[in-house]
Structure formats: structure tokens, C-alpha cells
Please model this.
Amino acid sequence: MSKEFEMTDIELMAYYLGIEVNQKEEDIFISQESYAKEILKKFKMNDCKPISTPVECRVKLSKHDEGEDIDSTFFKSLVGSLRYLTCTRPDILYVVGLVSRYMENPKTIHFKAANRILRYIKGTINFGLLYSFSNYYKLVGYSDSDWGGDVDDRKSTIGFVFFIGDTTFTWMSKKQPIVTLSTCEAEYVAATSSVCHAIWLRNLLKELGLPQEEPTEICVDNKLAIALSKNPVFHDRSKHIDTRYHFIRECIARKEVQIKYVKSQDQAVDIFTKPLKQEDFVKFKSLLGVTRSSLRGGVGS
Model:
């Protein structure tokens, strides 16, 4: 661009996107507090009891769950409203993706899971993303996958998040397109998706004048998947894996990315792949930069 955005331009853009911006000299806080309040009002949850996590730990939902049918049009409206809120609330991304799998034929249990998200939003109504000023522009990614987490088709949920310095830059959570045969394979496929995104981000940052001179680190918590990405000796064990997923090896050879091991307790992207205990959820939410508005207090953790 020929010039930087003026503050008025940011406010105008945020207005049309339904995003609120609070900018100070040392940081910028973005949220969708007003939109979140509209959702609660629309679905008559203004006075609901707040809850500390958006999804119950170890919850398992299925298309074959028994219970009364829920109006699918109403349920789709609810899920769609929640999905837009993930623009500034990555802490609800996993569970919104989870309940969206049941929009065609929702049951009471699916509706209760969606209602729990609203109760969580009630307690964290003024939460959003805090971006602090920094001169550190190194791109770092985290990649993770559960294994066979969907009880209906046994496909895994993959997720990744990229940081520039300490700032959450982009994130994703979705089901894998294939059924993987092991935890190692699920993590390997997830890492390959992360690498593809990393290459795109590196090209984007180069155009923006922030070239990444060093290989982009992608943190994975599975040592076998890391070995598979680096060593062709494992060819016999990976012949069944679609060749497109071996793209990761070429990127490592070209020194565009490097795969780094991280302990599971430090794997920030766990919040995008599975239900977590409250203490883990709060920890990873904080790592993503999801926090309360600096101007006002709130109910949530």
C-alpha cells in the first residue's frame, strides 16, 4: 500500500465488520463485544448462567445421538452466528466447528452443546485479542491433531496457529479430509497442512516488507511425525500416505521450514483439536492472546 491506515480508516473498516478496536500507544485490542451481546439477545440467553469453558471435557457427540429433533433452520442460525464470532474469539473455534457437524439433523444434545458456548460467551463477553507493540517479526507455527476424534467417520481434527513474535497471527481448526491409521500419520498430515500455510504466509510477509530470513519453525508434539518428515528411510512405513502430504520434506530440504518438537503441555494448538480441562483451556487461551478488555472488568477467567 502507498500509505498506512489512518485510525479513522481502521475504525470505519471495523464498523462494517462488526469489530470494535481500542488502540493505545503500546497495544491494540480488538473484540466483538456488541455482536456477542446481540447473539445472546437473539437467542434469549441474556440472563443465562455463565460457565468457564465452552465445551465439556471429553465430550463425544455423534450424528446418531438419541433425543428430540431440533429445528435445523434455528440451529443453523445459531451456529452461523457463533462462527462469525470466531473472528476475534479463537477460543471457541474448536467447539463451533464441532457443533456445526450436526446442522442437518440436530438433536437436543447438540443444541445443549451450542447453548453451552453461549453461556461461556456470557461470562467472557468483553474478551478479545490483544496485540502488543513489538519489533520482533519472526513467524512461528504450532500444529496438532487428535486421532480419530469424530466417532461417526473416525476422521481426525487438525489445527494450527501462527504467531509473529508473541502475537496470534492466523489460526485454523477443521476435520482432516482422510482417515489416518495412527497418531503419527494424523500429526504428519496436520503438519503438512501447517507447512503449506507457512509457505503462503512467508510469501505474504515478503510482499509486506517483512521477509523471513530463517526457516519458519513449526512445533509438533509427536517425535515419530517429525522423524517421518525429515528422513526418507521411513518410506516403507509411509507408502500408504498420499504423496501430496510428503510436500513437507521438500520444504524442509529447501530450508523454508523446520519441524521442532514441543511438549504436549506446551502445545498451544491443543485448544483447536480437542475438549480440554479448565486449567489447560485457560492456559492456552491466554497463550493465544485472548484476554479481557483492558478498560472494563468481566466475569470469565
